[in-house]
Amino acid sequence: MGYDALLWLSFGGPEGPDEVMPFLENVTRGRGVPRERLLEVAEHYQHFGGVSPINRLNRDAISAVEKQLAKAGIDLPVHFGNRNWQPMVEDTLAAITKAGARRVLVFPTSAYGGYSACRQYDEDIERARAAVGDGAPELVKLRQFFDHPLFVGAIADAVRAAHAELGNRPGTRTVFCAHSVPESADAASGPPSEGGRRYSRQIAEAARLVAAEAGIETYDVVWQSRSGPPQVPWLEPDIVDHIDALHAEGVTSVVVCPVGFVSDHLEVIWDLDNEAAERAAELEMGFARAATPDTDPRFAELVVELIREHTEGLPARKLSPFPAAGCTVNGAPCAVGCCEPAKRPSRP
Questions:
Q1: What is the pTM assigned to this prediction?
Q2: Taking a C-beta distance cutoff of 8 angstroms, is the pair 111, 281 a contact?
Q3: Which residue positions in the chain have pLDDT lower than 50?
Q4: 3-state DSSP of the chain
Q5: Beta bridge pairs of residue 81
Q6: Measured in whole angstroms, how far is the alpha carbon of residue 43 from the centre of its chain?
Q7: Beta-carbon neighbour count of residue 42 at 10 Å?
Q8: End-to-end C-alpha distance for the chain, whole angstroms
Q9: Contact 9, 108 (CB under 8 A)
Q10: What are the pLDDT digits (tens) for 309-340?
Q11: C-alpha distance from residue 181 to each of 71, 96, 178, 206, 280 (Å)
Q12: CB distance 125 to 139 below 8 Å
């Protein structure tokens, strides 16, 4: 039995000032986040006219994937759905169902394991099927791809380009960055038999692979976008704190690579292009940020290759010893107890 469509499943983001607060309320629903905190985060969005780049970038990436599918002779319509903002995944799945789809592949816009990076997309799938009810298509989620050679190659070239932007200065430190999560969430990521910390270990492995591909011997792995009350431990060090530490070491320039992101979420352009870049400028350090991979032609090729693993039985290409994980049906977790949701922090 073949597949009738591809559901492109992402986080979502506002596309105008009036959408910012409703979007943030969707993101934090049920978490008891004070309105004052939402207003604080809303200011980050309003700094960019109330528009997150994520929906536009997703549409651009979908267009590139559609062209690659046509080039490969694969007739598979692509539909866009989000967790937190229009187009909502429930509405998209309802439309796919009405069109007669019975079996659908799902591409989540995250390369990694962990609750936020993987299992929460399973929950989105389960919720969307429940909203559609009887007749909802079977949804098969594509696997994690942090160690795919096309993903690694695209990021490695972006790192090289960022170094070139700084004139390939000797001694420039490469810093790989990913979204921080609570320590408890990272400890619970992956199947219990694996010992936890699948998320942070995959980030470290992706950084190692990219550094090796780019010919970089010395690099660091740090975190960004931490939130929540200070008493809740999150993965550290923070990127801005790390820039301070590098300056104290005598490092005069830095290339930052958001290896944990496939596209320019608002966290990337706020935390890196604004806060981290401004801190480096205050310290008179050179600063360049590597591009995220979804604008690279290889990203669309990667998505189509993941699709062909299912439609044509193509072997999975990967560069690490991590098991190929994340491919599940109808929102089931990868394994019993895999990435169990940790208790949510009380602030976004």
A1: 0.95
A2: no
A3: 345-348
A4: CCCCEEEEEECCCCECHHHHHHHHHHHHCCCCCCHHHHHHHHHHHHCCCCECCHHHHHHHHHHHHHHHHHHCCCCCCEEEEECCCCCEHHHHHHHHHHCCCCEEEEEECCCCCCHHHHHHHHHHHHHHHHHHCCCCCEEEECCCCCCCHHHHHHHHHHHHHHHHHCCCCCCCEEEEEEECCEHHHHHCCCCHHHCCCHHHHHHHHHHHHHHHHHCCCCEEEEEECCCCCCCCCECCCEHHHHHHHHHHHCCCEEEEECCCCCCCCHHHHHHHHHHHHHHHHHCCCEEEECCCHHHCHHHHHHHHHHHHHHHCCCCCCCCCCCCCCCCCECCCCCCCCCCCCCCCCCCC
A5: 9
A6: 22
A7: 18
A8: 42
A9: yes
A10: 999 999 999 999 999 999 999 999 999 999 99
A11: 39, 33, 9, 17, 24
A12: yes
Q: Which amino acid is at 154?
A: A
